[in-house]
Input
Amino acid sequence: MVNRTLLSTAVAAAALSALAVPAGATNLLGSTSSAIISGTTFGFGPSAMPWTAEVWSPPGVCLRIAVLAQATDLEATVVAPNGTVFRDDDGGGANRPLVKINNTPNNGWYTVSINHWAGAAVSANFTLSLERVPVNSASCLPGTPPSASLQATAPKANRAPTPPAAGQAGH
Output
């Protein structure tokens, strides 16, 4: 005979694993288009701990992340599933970050990180607005340009050796 409590617990765990979010992250905007939430960055001695969340978005929309209120000067960094990085320090006015990814590059989880603008170890509260709105909406123009890409490059061992320049000895 099967223990019904054990079986229902196993089924519930399996259902939740299908909606898994990376460890330490908070799933926001999974099925809604906007949310206003509160968060806190933490400083432990010399170590900074940013607030981090995973926000789902389909491709081809505008994902808008705006700090509405903050206890210190913060910066927002958003990493798209393809590794493209968007960041802003003061675009929302009054030293508040505002990231507008106008035309999200792909379907998936966007990692949002909020921390002190210089990476200092601070404990600070903030209020954040998260929205998915139609691409080219007035609230998303101009969009935040990408600042970098975290796309992986081939390991050095797998790269073809670079021939030495004329007059230089090879290694």
Summary: The longest strand covers residues 34-44. The CA atoms of residues 25 and 164 lie 46 Å apart. The radius of gyration is 21 Å.
